[in-house]
Design goal:
The chain is an alpha/beta fold and 425 residues long. Helix content is 44%, strand content 17%. It has an eight-stranded parallel β-sheet. Strands 14-15-16-17-18 form a five-stranded mixed β-sheet, sandwiched between helices. It has a two-stranded parallel ribbon with strand order 1-19. The longest helix is centred in the last third of the chain and has 23 residues.
C-alpha cells in the first residue's frame, strides 16, 4: 500500500547532543518530569522511566538554588545508569541568577528553555535575557524560546494593542494577542542571534490551550521563520480530553508539515505514570505514518458476535508485551517497530484483517467453531485451539520477530527511523 506522507517545512537543524531537531530528521518526542528536581535520585529515575518509554529528550524544572545545585548530579546518575537522554532546563524568572551561581548546571543541561514573558521587564529584563543567551552560547547549548499565552510579554502586548487602537479599522483583540505571541517569539529569537547565539541553536514555540488558536498561531509562526518548532498545547488536560485535544491540534499541524518536536502536556491521574504522555505522542506520530516506535496491534472493537472477552484480553496482552519488549528489541531487532499484528474477534473481518497484517489471528466469535487460524505474511500457517491459544500465538510472534528482524532477517533495517521529505517553507 502506497502512502503519501506530508512534506516538512524547511528549517535549520539544531543539534542537541545526539539528537537532531529540524527538517530532514524525524519529529522528536519529548516530555517533562514532575518530581522535585532537588531530589536528584527521584528525578533521575523518572527521566530514565520516561526515556525507556520513548521520550528522546526530557525537560526538568530549574526553579531554585536547591534544584540548580542538583542538575549535574542528575546528569551523572543518568550516565551511570546508561541513559544518555538529553536534559532540558526549564527556566523562569530567575534563570540568569541560577546559571551564574551554579555554572555546572548550565554545562550539564543540553538545552535551555526560556520564556521571554517571564524573564523580566525593561532594561533589567533585557540584561537577564542577554545573560541566559550568552551562557548558552558559551556552553554551546541550544535554546528553546517558549512563548506562552498565560505569560506574555506585557510591554509588547501594550505596544501592539495601542497601535491597533489607532488603526482606522482595529482588529479584534484576540487577533492582536495572537500576533503578540508570534512576534514575541520572533523578536526574542532575533535578539538571541544578535547576542551571538547561532540560528541553528534556536527552537521556537508559541503554546496556547485552545486547539483552533494553536493551529492558527503555528501556521503563522511557521510561515515567518526557518526555526524548528516545538508543538504542544500548554495545558492539554486530563484523560481523554487531553488526549483528544492534543491529537486534534497536532495532527492538523503535522499533516501540514509544521512541527519538529512534540510534547503532550497531559495532567496525569493521581498516582499514575508520567509515561502516558510519551505513549500518546508516539501513537500520534505512528498512526499518522510519520514514525514507528513500537509494533502496533490492530484489534476489532467487538460487537454482538463477540460475547467472549478472549480477543480483548489477547489484544491487550500482546500490545503490552510488545511495548515492554521494545527497550531491548529496538537495539536487537532494528525495524521491528514497524511490525503490525492483528487480533480479530470473529469471521466477519477476522481473516481479511489478519491477512493484511504481518501476523494475525482470527478468534472465533459467538457460535463459531472454537478454532483460531493464524496468518503470517498473508498466508494461513496454523490453526490454534484450546486454553493455550494466547501463549502459542505469543510464541509465534516472538519467532517471527527473531527470524525477520534478527541478523540476516529480510525485514531488518539499518536505520529504522523514517525521514520525512523536505519542502521549501
Amino acid at each position: 500500500m502506497n502512502t503519501t506522507l506530508p512534506s516538512r517545512r524547511r528549517t535549520h537543524q539544531v543539534e542537541i547532543e545526539h539528537i537532531t531537531v529540524g527538517s530532514g530528521s524525524p519529529v522528536v518526542v519529548q516530555s517533562m518530569t514532575n518530581t522535585d528536581t532537588a531530589d536528584a535520585e527521584a528525578t533521575a529515575l523518572q527521566v530514565k522511566e520516561l526515556s525507556e518509554a520513548g521520550s528522546e529528550m526530557v525537560r526538568i524544572t530549574v526553579n531554585n538554588p536547591q534544584a540548580a545545585a542538583k542538575v549535574a548530579e542528575i546528569r551523572s546518575r543518568l550516565d551511570d545508569m546508561g541513559c544518555p537522554t538529553p536534559l532540558i532546563g526549564d527556566f523562569h524568572f530567575n534563570g540568569e541568577r541560577l546559571l551564574a551561581e551554579f555554572p555546572e548546571c548550565g554545562k550539564a543541561l543540553a538545552k535551555y528553555r526560556i520564556n521571554p514573558g517571564n524573564v523580566g521587564k525593561g532594561t533589567k529584563g533585557d540584561e537577564k535575557f542577554a545573560f541566559l543567551i550568552r551562557t548558552a552560547a558559551e556552553n554551546g547549548k541550544a535554546v528553546r524560546i517558549g512563548v506562552n499565552w498565560g505569560s506574555l510579554d506585557q510591554s509588547l502586548a501594550k505596544r501592539l494593542m495601542d497601535a491597533n487602537r489607532s488603526r482606522p479599522e482595529p482588529q479584534p483583540p484576540e487577533a492582536v494577542m495572537k500576533e503578540v505571541l508570534v512576534l514575541s517569539a520572533l523578536e526574542s529569537a532575533q535578539k538571541a542571534v544578535d547576542l551571538g547565539l547561532p540560528e541553528n541553536k534556536i527552537i521556537l514555540s508559541c503554546k496556547v490551550s485552545a486547539v483552533q488558536d494553536l493551529i492558527q498561531v503555528y501556521r503563522d509562526l511557521g510561515s515567518r521563520c526557518a526555526y524548528p518548532l516545538h508543538l504542544g498545547l500548554t495545558e492539554a488536560g486530563m484523560g481523554s480530553k487531553g488526549i483528544v485535544a492534543s491529537t486534534a491540534a497536532l495532527s492538523v499541524l503535522l499533516q501540514e508539515g509544521i512541527g519538529d518536536t512534540i510534547r503532550i502536556s497531559l495532567t496525569p491521574e493521581p498516582g499514575s505514570s508520567r509515561t502516558q504522555e510519551v505513549i500518546v505522542a508516539q501513537e500520534i506520530l505512528q498512526t499518522m505514518g510519520l514514525r514507528s516506535f513500537t509494533p502496533m496491534v490492530t484489534a476489532c472493537p467487538g460487537c454482538g458476535r463477540t460475547t467472549s472477552t478472549v480477543f480483548q484480553e489477547l489484544a491487550r496482552d500482546i500490545q503490552l508485551h510488545l511495548r515492554m519488549q521494545m527497550p531491548v528489541w529496538k537495539h536487537k531487532y532494528p525495524g521491528v517497530e514497524s511490525l503490525n499484528v492483528a487480533v480479530m474477534g470473529c469471521v466477519v473481518n477476522g481473516p481479511g484483517e489478519s491477512k493484511l497484517a504481518d501476523i494475525g489471528i482470527s478468534l472465533p466469535g459467538t457460535g463459531e467453531t472454537p478454532v483460531a487460524p493464524v496468518y503470517v505474511d498473508g498466508e494461513r500457517k496454523v490453526t490454534l485451539k484450546g486454553d493455550k491459544m494466547a501463549a502459542e500465538f505469543l510464541q509465534i510472534v516472538e519467532t517471527y520477530v527473531a527470524e525477520n528482524y534478527g541478523e540476516g532477517g529480510k525485514k531488518r533495517l539499518s536505520q529504522a527511523a523514517k525521514i520525512i521529505p523536505i519542502r521549501q517553507a
